[in-house]
Amino acid sequence: MEGQIIDDTHDAFLVDTGGRLGTLLVTVERGEQNLEEEFGGYFTTLSVWNPQKMDSPIQTMEIEVGGWAFGHHDVVDANFDGHQDFGYLWFMGAHSSQSWYYWLWDEKQGEFAEASEFHDEDISSPSFNAEDKTVSNLIRYSGAGDGLLAVYQWVDGKLVCMRKIEIEPTGWTDYNSPWILTVRDRINGELTEVFRTEFPTGSDGYFDERSKWEDLDYHGETR
Fold first, then answer.
1. Which of 31, 94, 124, 210 satisfies CB 3.0 to 4.6 Å to 43 for a cystine?
2. pLDDT tens per residue, range 96-140
């Protein structure tokens, strides 16, 4: 990336596609703020370059990025096909929630294709597990530990939610009430409740229980 400017309005990073074009350079330039929106971000241009042919970019993407989000990128094999992809943060919300754009490398087309699934409001701060080929995220309802954990898999090129694990107090706003953990699995194309249990006030056992269900091969204790 020698010679590339990185500052408050410019960003740059490398993506090793592992394909015939090898490692590509992505540059990011932040433009004017969108004043027509109440919480308008900044018009931002991403350009993908072949470092061996810097006369013109392979492709460009136009997005809108919040001021605090600019400068945060993620290089990862997001769909576990052996080719690296990349994401760019566009919004930072409460309880550490983050919203990202992701682009997947298409070796046949020789360019990145946007994965629109990551615009789903249920997907924030995604994490990628190459070992079991899952994408998961946790939406925190508060700082008390309640929230919704969703686990996704790629099915026929689409990111599909396979399981949702939700923890919340029975009184919802009453954090001194017992807590409920609910698990819903995708069955016949629909998310269906398969498990529910209650934890007494003051117990934090729901954290251990949730961690068990994060494994899609787990379906409850054998009795």
1. 31
2. 678 899 999 999 999 999 999 887 666 878 999 999 999 998 888
